[in-house]
Amino acid sequence: MGNTLVIQSCSPAQQAGWMHSCLASVQHWAAAQGHDYRLVGDEIFELVPQWYRHKVGDKLPVATDYARLVLLQQALAEAGYQQALWLDADVLVLDQSMQLDFAGTCAFGQEVWVQPRDGKLQVRRNIHNAVAVFRPDCPVLPFLLHCVESLMLRVDPAHIAPQLVGPKLLQALYPLCNFALLPQVGALSPAVVADLCRSGAAAADTALQLLRQQSVVLPQAVNLCASLISPAEAHTVIEYLQTTGLSSG
Q1: In a domain, 151, yes or no
Q2: How far apart are CA 172 and CA 75, in angstroms?
Q3: Is 125 within 8 Å of 109 (Cβ atoms)?
Q4: For 220, which of 75, 88, 97, 100 is 20 to 30 Å away at the CA?
Q5: What's the rounded Cα separation, in Å, for the pair 67 and 3?
Q6: Nearest C-alpha neighbor of 129 from the set 164, 87, 77
């Protein structure tokens, strides 16, 4: 879709590290698709009400979950874009031809999350907001902002889960709102990352192979989940994916 703005946010301190490769991959993808691109720094937190910032304290991702919605709303209202698209700073685009087409007025990502449980690998499909797309007159966007504010007003500060107003909220709302899902933008769990760091373990029962087998479509972009992996692992995974890709093995 034309007249699209792609928005990302990353602290200047992080832009010099491995996230630079992720940001560059999104910038190149946006240019290839003819989209406008905007990178926001720490000023993103100026969009968060003071009471909200005080309540979340150092849990900045929870503040970002709110601020990204405000940025997307502003892009649609003030700049007149026909589509506003958010991608997390730790998302790596693997395929520059990726298309995020969908029916409706909003869409979020869907991940195949592979993790060990009771000695076996378990696969779950989760909704995530590492990618979020909104179009004009979307009824979900103002409702989502209302839900986030309402939850944060009532929640005990000592019990604010990292994904409370992000993926957990979207997972709860999906049966009611039935918004579109974008499995093209997935995520790599620590178990998958471990396989990739072993140069893509080839055994049939590995987390990486389960990701490949259980994906409705093989992800063309992946959230590296910065909070769950080390910089060394991130560098190794990025190098592997940029040279070998996710489909090999």
Answers
A1: yes
A2: 26
A3: no
A4: 75
A5: 22
A6: 87
Domain-embedded: residue 248: no
24 part of a folded domain: yes
Beta carbons of 222 and 241 less than 8 angstroms apart:
yes
Domain count, the chain: 1
What pLDDT, on a 0 to 100 scale, did the predictor assign at position 78?
Answer: 82
Residue 178 lies in a domain: yes
Q: Which domain holds residue 181?
A: 4-243
* Distance (Å, whole) CA 245 – CA 4: 27
Cα–Cα distance measured from residue 223 to residue 88, given in angstroms and rounded to the nearest whole number: 7
Q: How many residues are present in the chain? A: 249
What pLDDT, in 10s, does the model give residues 184-236? 999 999 999 999 998 765 555 689 999 999 998 999 999 999 999 999 999 99
Residue 171 maps to which CATH number?
3.90.550.10
What pTM, to 2 d.p., does this model score?
0.95
- Start-end of H helices in the chain: 12-15, 19-33, 50-56, 60-78, 140-154, 167-177, 190-197, 207-214, 231-243
